[in-house]
């Protein structure tokens, strides 16, 4: 453009030159037009050819077919199964129970299979009657505030919308819940009720397992009555086979390419070396720990604040969401198991499912080493369930020890009592059992088959993405206690996180994590008042909430009253985020800061006592200000006591009877004005 501008300014160009330039211009224009037409014709010709050729490639059409093997009916017919056990599982327990029930079936001349509802089309339930002596069992855990587990969400949605005729379906349901939560076993109850509404026939009563009590005993008690009911319904008898059946076979790899061996990845091989979004439970992001500081000034406990760097991960989060982290077991525990069993932990092996039709080819990512399996994939710190003891009993060479294991795995009252005292209450993990039973030396591969998977741990995020878009903050307390046998038991995740020291470029500070969305959300309108109640580490999401309200205020938004009720043991010992809260109060973002120090005086003071003390103000915010209430922390005592306090306040100032006050608070929950993020 500069050259053309310069030549048009030149006064010495003659008329002849100008004509020659014009001719040249026309010829250039002709060439350009011809080239353009030729190009367009060529493009059209090839494009048209492609369009015409597509139908001639039938192989291409098969690629578009659904990837998942969605018909469990066809699979059952193909493999000769007549019992299908679906599981809605968040932490693996419901899946474990489903596997145990499907294995039980062979004792009654039946064949079972455990199935993840996420992998199948559940509308096929109406076709189950095509299979002789068929039965569908549902082991359904309830998650959060009465919600389905992630893998049962589609099934739940289908049940709500379905108008299917399930009159030929026979079913039974066992629910897994926790009585400390408001909506105890909501999912199990709903599935049981809804299947009956759709015409299905219940062949055994709904089982309600309570994890706040003894979930294992609840399951065993239900199971021992369930199978006789199945036998009676189908006219079958127990075969008497009580033998141990291996589900997986061991393959030891002596000559293996180490690039094909899993070293702790949750899904894709080498996913930790070559990170690709999106990040989720099967593909966690390796976040660098950029800060790890102790929050408390004194006391025996270790309370900590960690910051995880999520830069370049494309991970998005909102205040109130949860961060899931995959921990690793203590290497000293792993080494001790290896020593006791006389095993080379660096042996590379695979455990392959003997049922070739199963969707679950391995119990954990394989091939891998025993060391990796025991470190990253298996739960070695929780007391093992009775089915593990039953399977292990055959390896005890001492008759007394073998009898003891079999008794604890039995459904007899004496056996249940022994299991409760010797395993559950004494908090004996698999290492402690091996130490206390010197003749019990099972093959390590069978032990690895039996142990449940090590689960991700969830923490309420203690930051706002508006203020910290590239970092996620965690507030946690390390778990450490002495058992009845004098052993020191340590929480897997919190002690592992405690040792994650910020590091320039070492793997020692990397944490595999992903974000799980939550319903625990600030009100849509910033001007809506909020009452936050979170003692101890329950303060975590409220640090994020307050950060966000401060940010909104900086943006010029009108921010409503922000009230916090916080509690700890002693003011000068474990007052978490004291300086940050003081700063927020000084800036006028935190309009009320009420702190209960439970042990600083003779009489214990908790958050519910401060709520009662300020009851008039609480009612005014609730009734006139349409405030939203948020409760985070211990479900067993604190959340229940706080809820009872709100019943009292509503009853007194709203001139309501106790049942009316309860109904008022329940309606607040339904409307999303009373939210809980609690754990037991």
Keywords:
disordered N terminus; alpha/beta; 18% strand; six-stranded antiparallel sheet; Rossmann fold; NADPH-cytochrome p450 Reductase, Chain A, domain 3; Elongation Factor Tu (Ef-tu), domain 3; 680 residues; single chain; 4 domains; seven-stranded mixed sheet
Topology:
Elements: H1 2-8, H2 15-53, H3 58-63, H4 72-79, E1 83-88, H5 93-104, E2 112-115, E3 135-143, E4 147-148, H6 153-161, E5 170-177, H7 186-197, E6 201-202, E7 207-210, H8 215-234, E8 248-252, E9 285-294, E10 303-309, E11 322-325, H9 331-340, E12 348-353, E13 368-369, H10 370-377, H11 386-392, H12 399-408, H13 413-425, H14 430-436, H15 444-450, E14 457-460, E15 471-477, E16 480-482, E17 488-490, H16 492-498, E18 510-516, E19 530-533, H17 540-554, E20 562-568, H18 578-586, E21 592-597, H19 607-613, H20 615-623, E22 628-634, H21 635-653, H22 658-670, E23 674-679
Parallel strand pairs: 1-2, 1-3, 3-5, 5-6, 5-7, 19-20, 19-22, 20-21, 22-23
Antiparallel strand pairs: 3-4, 8-12, 9-10, 9-18, 10-15, 11-14, 11-18, 12-13, 16-17
Helix pairs in contact: 12-13, 19-21, 21-22
Roughly how many Å apart are the termini?
74 Å
CATH architecture call of the largest domain? 3-Layer(aba) Sandwich
The CATH superfamily of the largest domain is identified as Flavodoxin domain
Please indicate the count of domains. 4
Which class best fits the helix and strand makeup? alpha/beta
The number of helices is 22
Structure summary, number of beta strands: 23
> What number is the mean pLDDT?
89
Described by its quaternary structure, the protein is single chain
Transmembrane segments: 25-46
Pfam families: FAD_binding_1, Flavodoxin_1, NAD_binding_1
Domain FAD-binding FR-type: 282-523
GO molecular function: flavin adenine dinucleotide binding; FMN binding; NADPH-hemoprotein reductase activity
């Amino acid at each position: 453009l500069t050259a053309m501008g310069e030549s048009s300014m030149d006064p010495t160009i003659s008329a002849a030159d100008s004509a020659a330039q014009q001719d040249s211009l026309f010829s250039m224009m002709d060439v350009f037009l011809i080239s353009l037409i030729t190009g367009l014709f060529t493009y059209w010709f090839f494009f048209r050819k492609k369009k015409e050729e597509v139908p001639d490639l039938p192989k291409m059409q098969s690629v578009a077919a659904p990837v998942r093997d969605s018909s469990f009916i066809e699979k059952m017919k193909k493999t000769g199964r007549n019992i299908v056990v679906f599981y809605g599982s968040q932490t693996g327990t419901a899946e474990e129970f489903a596997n145990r029930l499907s294995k039980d079936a062979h004792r009654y001349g039946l064949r079972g299979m455990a199935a993840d509802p996420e992998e199948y089309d559940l509308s096929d339930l109406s076709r189950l009657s095509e299979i002789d002596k068929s039965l569908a069992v549902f082991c359904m855990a309830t998650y959060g505030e009465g919600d389905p587990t992630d893998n049962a969400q589609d099934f739940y949605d289908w049940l709500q919308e379905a108008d299917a005729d399930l009159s030929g379906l026979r079913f039974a349901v066992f629910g897994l819940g926790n009585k400390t939560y408001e909506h105890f076993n909501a999912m199990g109850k709903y599935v049981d009720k809804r299947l009956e509404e759709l015409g299905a026939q219940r062949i055994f009563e709904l089982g309600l397992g309570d994890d706040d009590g003894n979930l294992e005993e609840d399951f065993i008690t239900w199971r021992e009555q369930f199978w006789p009911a199945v036998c009676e319904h189908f006219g079958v008898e127990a075969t008497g086979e009580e033998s141990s059946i291996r589900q997986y076979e061991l393959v030891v790899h002596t000559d293996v390419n180490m690039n094909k061996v899993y070293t702790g990845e949750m899904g894709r091989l080498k996913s930790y070396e070559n990170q690709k979004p999106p990040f989720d439970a099967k593909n966690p992001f390796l976040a660098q720990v950029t800060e790890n500081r102790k929050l408390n000034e004194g006391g025996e406990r270790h309370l900590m604040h960690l910051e995880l760097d999520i830069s370049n991960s494309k991970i998005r989060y909102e205040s109130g969401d949860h961060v899931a982290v995959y921990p690793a077991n203590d290497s000293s525990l792993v080494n001790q198991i290896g020593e006791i069993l006389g095993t080379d932990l660096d042996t590379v092996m695979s455990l392959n499912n003997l049922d070739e039709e199963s969707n679950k080819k391995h119990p954990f990512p394989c091939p891998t080493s025993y060391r990796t399996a025991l470190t990253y994939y298996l739960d070695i710190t929780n007391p093992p369930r009775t089915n593990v003891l039953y399977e292990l009993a055959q390896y005890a060479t001492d008759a007394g020890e073998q009898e003891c294991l079999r008794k604890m795995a039995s459904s007899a009252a004496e056996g249940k009592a022994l299991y409760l005292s010797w395993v559950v209450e004494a908090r004996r993990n698999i290492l402690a059992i091996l130490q206390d039973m010197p003749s019990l030396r099972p093959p390590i591969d069978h032990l690895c088959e039996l142990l449940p998977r090590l689960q991700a741990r969830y923490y309420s995020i203690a930051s706002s993405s508006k203020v910290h878009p590239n970092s996620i903050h965690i507030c946690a307390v390390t778990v450490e206690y002495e058992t009845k046998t004098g052993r020191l038991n340590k929480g897997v995740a919190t002690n592992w996180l405690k040792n994650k020291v910020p590091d320039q470029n070492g793997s020692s500070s990397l944490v595999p994590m992903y974000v799980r969305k939550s319903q625990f959300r600030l009100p849509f309108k910033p001007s809506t008042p909020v009452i936050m109640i979170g003692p101890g580490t329950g303060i975590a999401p409220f640090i994020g909430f307050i950060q966000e309200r401060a940010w909104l205020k900086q943006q010029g938004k009108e921010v409503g009253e922000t009230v916090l009720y916080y509690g700890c043991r002693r003011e000068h010992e474990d007052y978490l985020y004291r300086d940050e809260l003081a700063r927020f109060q000084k800036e006028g973002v935190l309009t009320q800061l009420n702190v209960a120090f439970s042990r600083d005086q003779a009489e214990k003071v908790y958050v519910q006592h401060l709520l009662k003390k300020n009851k008039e103000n609480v009612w005014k915010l609730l009734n006139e200000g349409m405030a939203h209430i948020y409760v985070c922390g211990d479900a067993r005592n604190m959340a229940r006591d706080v809820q009872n306090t709100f019943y009292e306040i509503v009853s007194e100032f709203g001139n309501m009877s106790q049942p009316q006050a309860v109904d008022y608070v329940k309606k607040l929950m339904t409307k999303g004005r009373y939210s809980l993020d609690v754990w037991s």
